[in-house]
Amino acid sequence: MTTQMATTIEARSSAVTTSFDKRSLRDAFGSFATGVTIVTTAGPTGADIGLTANSFSSVSLDPPMVLWSLARTSANIDAFRNSGHFAVHILSADQEALSGRFASKVADRFEGLALDRGPDGIPMLPDCMARFACKLAYQYEGGDHVIFVGEIVDFGHSARKPLVFHGGRYGMLLPKQSAPAADSADALSNLSSDDLLYQVSNAYFRTRQAVVDELEHHGWTAEEYAVLSIIGREDGLCMPEIVARSEKFRGQTISAEIVQKLVARGLLHEGDSTDGQTKVRLTSEGRLSVMELIAIRKSSEADVQGSLDPSEVQLLKHLLGRLEHSAHVVAST
Ligand SMILES: Cc1cc2nc3c(=O)[nH]c(=O)nc-3n(C[C@H](O)[C@H](O)[C@H](O)COP(=O)(O)O)c2cc1C
Q1: To test ligand 1's pocket by mutation, which of 49, 51, 88 has the most ligand atoms within 8 angstroms of CB?
Q2: Is 167 in the same domain as 214?
Q3: Is the pLDDT of residue 189 over 60?
Q4: At residue 139, does pLDDT exceed 50?
Q5: Which neighbouring-strand residues pair with 147?
Q6: Which residue has its alpha carbon closest to ligand 1 atom 19?
Q7: In a domain? residue 321
């Protein structure tokens, strides 16, 4: 392995000791949102070394250069100081677990990962948003950190959503939407497409319609779907319970007739009665139908997600969950 020592530049000014509160300074640094990277190199005996770092920054286009900084307390400080190359991998929104792994004390951070090899045999992680193989050009003393500047010898990138780190927490990027044109107001409802309620109900109506169309295409109605999936989750329900659950969770009214039709088709059977109410249960054929309905719903859910990538779907679910929670709090106060 060739080891090219990079120039080490010592700090010119004498160290200034301040009485800043470290916690508060750390919080102030944390207000700067960054991406998340994994920086790797090879140790003196060729061992794979890597850690999570958000101190990465691009430096120069010509020559192409990047920098990052490593705590002097790092177990791998000497490996990075003495290795001639390092690689920086920019993580995508779905790689939070990888970031956690490379910041943790696990015995082998690379275990089970398929690796490419860069210059000097340094480990290169495939499947990142971007990666830069670098020749170590300079090292600067930076207080309790060492700043490494590398000259890029190879790089690659792909269109993905980045993993974000802010205030000590992981996050995702939400592109700002430009405000819609003023004339897009719906005259009848007096709601514009910028209104949250309009957007939520419009999205609900359209996504639900996609599922209903798919169900009808397979010979099912939305009402049948509602009854079978409600009963499928419980071991026997009486009619008022089915109606109450449907209205509460789906805003859909169910008629007693539909239950009778499903009984006649052999998908439900009426069993024992308590307090004069007959419990309705799925037959084995009914259970098969529920599985078919779940498959239909899953396939139309995949269609509805369309061009959203997994991180956007995750974000949407998170926001809808919070919206549901705050609507619930408002309703119960
Ligand atoms: C999001 C995130 C960013 C981090 N950034 C850095 C960094 O830029 N420099 C650093 O020295 N440690 C950073 N760390 C901490 C190291 O990843 C962590 O201390 C790791 O255990 C160091 O491993 P090592 O001692 O094997 O080098 C970061 C951790 C996380 C979770």
Answers
A1: 51
A2: no
A3: no
A4: yes
A5: 69, 140
A6: 103
A7: no
Closest CA to 80 of 107, 118, 43, 116: 43
Q: Cα–Cα distance between 38 and 33 in angstroms, integer? A: 17
Same domain, 272 and 162: no
290 CA from centroid of ligand 1 (Å): 48
- 130 shares its domain with 35: yes
Q: Does 2 map to a domain?
A: no
Q: Residue 118 burial (CB < 10 Å; 0-12/13-18/19+)? A: buried
In a domain, 307, yes or no: yes
Ligand 1 centroid from CA 282, angstroms? 54
pLDDT of 19 reads 85
Q: Verify that 68 and 156 share a domain, yes or no.
A: yes
Q: Which CATH number do you get for residue 264?
A: 1.10.10.10
Domain that holds residue 229: 192-312
Residues 127 and 263 in one domain: no
Rounded to an integer, what distance in angstroms lies between the CA atom of residue 206 and that of residue 229? 21
Q: How far is the CA of 100 from the centre of ligand 1 (A)?
A: 10
- The pLDDT, as a whole number, for residue 218 is 92
How far does residue 101's CA lie from ligand 1's centre (Å)? 11
Gap from CA of 319 to ligand 1 centroid (Å):
29
187 domain-assigned: no
Q: How far apart are CA 150 and CA 68, in angstroms?
A: 9
Ligand 1, CB cutoff 6 Å, lining residues: 36, 51-55, 69-71, 74-76, 99, 103, 165
Q: Is the pLDDT of residue 291 over 80?
A: yes
Average model confidence (pLDDT) across the chain:
87
